[in-house]
Amino acid sequence: MAVGIFDSGLGGLTVLDAVSKRLPDVPFVYYGDNAHAPYGVRDADDVYELTTAGVQRLFDAGCDLVILACNTASAAALRRMQEAWVPADKRVLGVFVPLIEALTERQWGDNSPPREVAVKHVALFATPATVSSRAFQRELAFRAIGVDVEAQPCGGVVDAIEDGDMILAEALVRSHVEALQRRMPKPEAAILGCTHYPLMEDVFQDALGEGVAVYSQANLVAESLADYLTRHPDKLGEGTESAFLTTGDPARVSNKATQFLRRKIAFVKA
After folding, report:
1. Which are the catalytic amino acids?
2. Where are any strands of DSSP class E within 154-212?
3. Tell me, what CATH number does 77's domain have?
4. Among 17, 134, 168, 224, which has the highest number of CB atoms less than 10 A from its own CB?
5. Considering only CA atoms, which of 81, 82, 74 is closest in space to residue 100?
6. CA atoms within 13 A on the CB side of 171
C-alpha cells in the first residue's frame, strides 16, 4: 500500500511531511535525486530522463502511485510521461493541479469549462525551468479565464535552502519579490511554485505584504492525495515499508534532511 514521493532533492520532504500527517497509516517511499539536483536549471529532455528513472525506481519499490513533489519535473516531464510512458496500471500525479484548484476554488476532478474567478492578478515564484515551461499558465487556462500571471524565476533560492544558508535564501527571496513587483505592483495572490519554498513562506508573505494571499503546496497536495485515494483505493501499491532513497551520498543527504525537517531521517542508496 505504499505511495511514492519523487523529488530532485530535499524540497519534496515538505510534501512528504504533510501527506504523512494527513495519511498516517500509508507507508511512503521517498526518492530524492540529490546527485543531479537542482533540476531547475536543466533542459526539459534532461529532466524527463531523470524523472522517469526515479519514478521507475519507485514503481520497483512497490508504489503504483507516485507524486512528483517537484514542480520542475511536474512542469517539464509529467504530461509527456502520462501520454507515452506511464504503464496503464500505474499513476503519476503532479503538484500543480491541487494548487490551481485551490486558487480557482474548484473541486478536485472538476473538468467543467474554464470560468472567471475572483483573483485576477497572480504572482508565480518558481525555478527558471518551471517558469520557462509555462506549465502553470497552461494548467490554469484549463480552469480559469481572465487571470493575469506574472512569473518570476527565482534563481539561487533552492541552492541556498539545500545548503542551509537561510540568510542568503531570505535575501534572494526579497530580491525576487522586488523584481516581480516592478512588473506587477499589486498581485492579489502569490503561488509558491517550488516545494522548497514553504520553508520561506513567512518571508514571501512579509515581502509581499499582508494583503496578498500566499498559496503553498504541501497541505493542498496532502488533502488532494487523501481525496484521490478515497476514490481510487486500488492505487495503493503492494509496498508495505516506508523508505528514503537517494542517488546522492546517503550520510550527507540524511544529515541535510534531518536539518531540513528537524527530525531524524535516514536515507539509503537508491
Report:
1. 70, 194
2. 189-193
3. 3.40.50.1860
4. 224
5. 74
6. 7
Measured distance CA(101)–CA(3) in Å, rounded: 22
Nearest to 11 by CA among 262, 222, 257: 257
User: Is 184 in the same domain as 90?
Assistant: no
Q: Which domain covers residue 22, as residue numbers?
A: 3-94+219-269
The total of structural domains in the chain comes to 2
Other Cβ atoms less than 10 A from the Cβ of 164: the count is 13
Q: What is the DSSP letter of 113?
A: P
Rounded-to-10 torsion of CA 213, 217, 220, 224: 140
Query: Do residues 81 and 92 make contact, with C-beta atoms less than 8 angstroms apart?
Result: yes
The pair phi, psi for residue 263, each rounded to 5°, is -150, 160
Domain end, chosen from 217, 237, 261, is at 217
- pLDDT tens string, the chain, 270 residues long: the values are 799 999 998 989 999 999 999 999 999 999 999 999 888 889 999 999 999 999 999 999 999 999 999 988 998 899 999 999 999 999 999 988 888 888 888 765 677 888 888 899 999 999 888 898 898 898 888 889 999 999 999 999 988 988 889 999 999 999 999 999 999 999 999 999 988 898 899 999 999 999 999 998 888 899 989 988 998 888 887 878 899 999 999 999 999 899 888 889 999 999
* Domain identity same for 62 and 104: no
Question: CA-to-CA distance for 83 and 74, rounded, in angstroms?
Answer: 13
Compute the distance between CA of residue 160 and CA of residue 29 in angstroms, rounded to an integer.
26
pTM metric for this prediction = 0.86
